Amino acid sequence: MADPNEPTGSLPASNPGATPVSASEPLLRLRGISKHFGAVQALYGVDVDLPSGQVTALCGDNGAGKSVLTKCIAGIHEPDQGEMFWEGRLVHIRTPGDAAALGIETVYQDLALADNLDIVQNMFLGRERLSRGLLDEDSMERAAAATLASLRVTTVRSIRQPVATLSGGQRQAVAVAKAVMWNSKLVMLDEPTAALGVAQTRMVLDLIVRLKDHGLAVMVISHNLNDVFEVADRVAVLRLGRMVAQDQLSAFDRQSVVDFMTTGTSTRQVTASDATAMKD
Amino acid sequence: MATIPTQPGDEPLPAVGADTDAAVDLTAAAVEVIPPGIVAQSLGEYLRGWVARVRGGDAGVLPVAFALLAVAIVFTIVSPNHVFLSSKNLVNLFDQSAVFIVLAMGEGFVLLLGEIDLSIGYVAAIGGTVAADLVQPSPNWPWWAAILAALLVCAGIGAIHGFIITRLRMPAFVVTLAGYLLWFGVMIIILGTAGGVSITSTVLPNQEALYGIVYAYIDPLVAWVGLLAIVGLLGAAMWLRDAGRRRSGLVAPPVGLTVAKIVLVAGAGIVVVAICNVNRGNFLPIVGVPWVVPLVLVVLGAWTILLERTQFGRHMYAVGGNAEAARRAGINVSRVRTLAFILCSLTAALAGIIYCSQLGGLTTNINGGQLVLYAVAAAVIGGTSLFGGRGRAIHGLLGGLVIGAIYNGLYLLGLPIQWQLIITGLVLLAAVSVDSLSRKGVGSGATARA
Ligand SMILES: Nc1ncnc2c1ncn2[C@@H]1O[C@H](COP(=O)(O)OP(=O)(O)OP(=O)(O)O)[C@@H](O)[C@H]1O
Ligand SMILES: [Mg+2]
User: What are the domain boundaries of chain A?
Assistant: First the structure.
C-alpha cells in the first residue's frame, strides 16, 4: 500500500488498491452505524457502501445526519454502534489520524482551516514535510503551488497569505486542494461547491469525476440535485438519521430523490432511459 | 497541461478537464495562472501581502518598535539631565527588562493557544529560590546543576498545570489562579523562617556565577567579536534563505527588505554593545555587556526556532488559531496544550533566576502578581494576541523592553508607585484594544464560515 502520508501532488495511478478486492466488495462498507449526542439520535443503524471508482452522492434534508455520518468515517466522532469494513477488513477509526492512515480525506462543511495560518501551512497541517528536523517550507510551498495551479485556483494573491484574508470561495478551493493533494483512496466532500461561483463549481465537479476515473471512491454531499445527477454513480438518501434509499443513479430521478428526502418513500418507478434523459 | 508552470520534481495534479472539450474555456483562464511565488518578487506584491497580514490582525513588529522609540524619546527629554539615555541607566534598563522579557516569552506560549497562566510570577520565584537554595554553602551544587534543577522543578509545575487543564478539562484561568496562591505558599515554605535567600557571597564560586548573570560583564573586545560572529552568521542565514527562495520563485521578501533586516540587526547589536562598553562606574571603571544580554538572546533564538521552524511550533499556531481544525488534521491537541504550559513554566524559571541574580537573592516580599501582569502586558504590547493564534518570541523582547523602559523612566522621574501602576495599566489597555480591534478586522474579512 502506498504511504498515505506521502503527498504526491499528483493523482495515484488507476486502481490504487494493491490488495485484491473482490468485485462486489466496496472500498468501505458501513453496517449499522448509530450515533447520538445527548438526547439527539443523529444516526440510526446506517448501512452504506462506498465502492472504488464510483461517486456516491449522499442526499438528505438539513439535519438528516449527513455531516455526522461523514465525521464518523473521518474519525471525528466515534460511532456508538456499528461496524466499518475497509477493503473487507474490520477497522476501527477512532481518530482523524486513523482515517488519514487508511487513505481517507475529507472536505468538511465548515472547512476546518486555521485562519491564522497561510495557505501552504493549512494544506500541510498535521503532515508537514521536514528536512533535518525542521520544516521544509520550500518543498511544501512548491507542492501546494502545483496542486493549486492544477486546480486552476488562480485568484489568490499570494500562496503565503493567511486564510483569514481569503474569500469564502477561495477558502473552499483551499479545503478541496488540501484533500486531494494526498495519495488517498476515499475522498469525502461535504457540500464542496456551496460557496463557489459557476467556474469554480465546474472545476470541483470535473475534479470529482477525475478522482473517480483514477479509481478513488468519492462521497459527495450536495443539496444541488443538478450536481448530484451530473457526477454521481450511486445515490444514498438519509432522512432523520435513517438510510431510506441507496442504489445506482439509474434507479432514481429528481422527483424520487426529493420524495425519499422528504417522506422516506417514493412510488415513482424510474427506467434507465428516464435517468439518462435526466442527465441532460 | 502545457500551460501550467510547475516546479521540477513535483508532478502536479493532472489539470482538471484539460483533456476534455472544456479545456477550451479553461485555457483562457490559464492565461491568468500566476505562479504565486513569482509575483511576490516585486516590492509592490510584498507590500500587498503585508497589508493582507495587517488586515488579518498581524501588524508585525513595526508598531511596537515605534512605541519603544517614542517611549525612549519622551523619557530622554523629560528625565532630569536626560539621564535616561546615560550608559549606566540603559544597562540598568536592560537588566530590569530581562525579567519582563523572559517572563513574557514564557507567557507567550500559553497566550498563543488563547490560554493564560496567572501563576508564572510565583513559579518564577520558585525557580529562583530553588536555584539560590542549591548554591548555598550546605548543598553547594555547581551553578549549572542548580539552574538545571530549577528548570526541571518548574517544568514539573507546568506539567501539573497542563495535566489538570487538559485531562480534567478545567479552565486555565482557574487552575493557574489556584496555582498563583499555591506556589506562593510553597515559595514561602521553601524560603523558610529566614524569609529569604541571598547569593551575594564572594567566596562561593557557584553563588558568584548566579550573581554574575546580571553583575558580571563580558570583556569589551570579546563582546565585539561575539557580535561580529552573531551578526555574520544570522545575516548569512537570512540572506541565503531569502536569496534561495527568490531564485526558485518562492514567496520571498525583496532584496531591499532582506538587506534592511540584516542592517537593522547589526545596528541594534552595535548600539547595545557600544552602550555597554562605555564606562558607567562612578569610582572604578565598569564596562562590558552583562551576561544576561546574551542569555536573553539565546532564549529568543531557541524559542523562535521552536515556534517558527519546527513541526511542534506549527502545531501550536494551528491549535491557537482553530483547535478543531488542528484536531481534524490529526494533531494531538491535549499534548500541544500540556507542552505549552510546561514551556511557559520552564521559561519562567529562567526569568526567576535572572530576577534572583538582579536582586542578589529572593525574599518573601516578591510580588508575583505584578510580575504576571507585566509579563502579559509585555507580550500583548509586543504584538501577541490574547485571543490565541498570533505571537512570536520577539514580541516578548520588544514588549518587555517597552515595559522595562516605562518602569525605569517613571522611576527616574521620581513618580510615586501609584502613577507607575496607573501608566502601565493604561499602556496595557491600549495594547489590548489594538489587539481587539485588529481581531474585529479579521471577523469582517473572513465572513464565510459555515
Ligand atoms: N456535535 C453535535 N452535538 C450535538 N448534536 C449534533 C452535533 N452534530 C450534529 N448534531 C445533530 O445531529 C443531527 C444531524 O446533523 P448533521 O450536521 O449531520 O446534519 P446534515 O445532514 O449535515 O445537515 P445540513 O444539510 O444542514 O448540513 C442534527 O439534529 C444536529 O443537531
Ligand atoms: Mg451538514
Answer: 28-279
Cβ–Cβ < 8 Å for B308, B392: yes
The 10s digit of each residue's pLDDT in A105-155 is: 999 988 889 999 999 999 999 999 999 999 999 999 999 998 888 777 777
Identify the band that residue A3 occupies on the pLDDT scale cut at 50, 70 and 90.
Answer: very low
CB atoms A142 and B9 under 8 Å = yes
Q: Which residues of A touch B250 (CB under 8 A)?
A: 137-138, 141-142
Joined grid coordinates for residue A133: 528536523
State the best of B4, B10, B27 to mutate against chain A, taking most chain A CBs within 10 Å. B10
The cell numbers describing B137, all together, are: 554553602
Q: The domain spanning residue B205 has which CATH number? A: 1.10.3470
Q: Taking 70 as the threshold, does the pLDDT of residue A165 lie above it?
A: yes
Residues B43 and B160 both lie in one domain: no
Q: What is the DSSP string of B336-385?
A: HHHHHHHHHHHHHHHHHHHHHHHHTEEETT--HHHHHHHHHHHHHHHT--
Cβ contact A28:A98 at 8 Å: no
Measured CA to CA in angstroms, residue A21 lies from A103, A110, B396 at distances of: 16, 34, 57
Sheet holding A186-190, edge to edge: A104-107, A186-190, A217-221, A55-59, A234-239, A242-248
Distance CA B369, CA B388 (A): 22
Domain residue limits at B127: 56-216+291-449
Angle at B366 (CA atoms; ends B365, B369), nearest 5 degrees = 120
For residues B67 and B49, state if they share a domain.
Answer: no
Mutate to test the pocket of ligand 1, among A43, A46, A67 (most ligand atoms within 8 A of CB): A67
Each residue's pLDDT tens digit, B39-89: 445 566 667 667 766 665 666 777 788 888 999 999 999 988 888 989 999
Could you tell me the three cell numbers for A249? 443513479
pLDDT, residue B289, reads 94
Residue whose CA lies nearest to ligand 1 atom number 12:
A42
CB atoms within 10 A of CB B414: 9
Q: What are phi and psi for residue B238, nearest 5 degrees?
A: -65, -45
Tell me, what's the ipTM? 0.84
Instruction: Tell me, yes or no, whether B76 and B191 share the same domain.
Output: yes
**Which cell numbers hold the place of A172?**
473552499
| Number of structural domains in chain B | 2
Q: What is the pTM of this model?
A: 0.86
| Short-list B334, B312, B339, CA closest to B323 | B334
With an 8 Å Cβ cutoff, are A202 and B390 in contact?
A: no
* CATH fold label, A28-279: Rossmann fold (3.40.50)
Give residue A262 CA to ligand 2 midpoint distance, Å: 16
Cβ atoms of B355 and B106 closer than 8 Å: no
Q: Do B67 and B172 belong to one domain? A: yes
Q: A198: helix, coil or strand?
A: helix
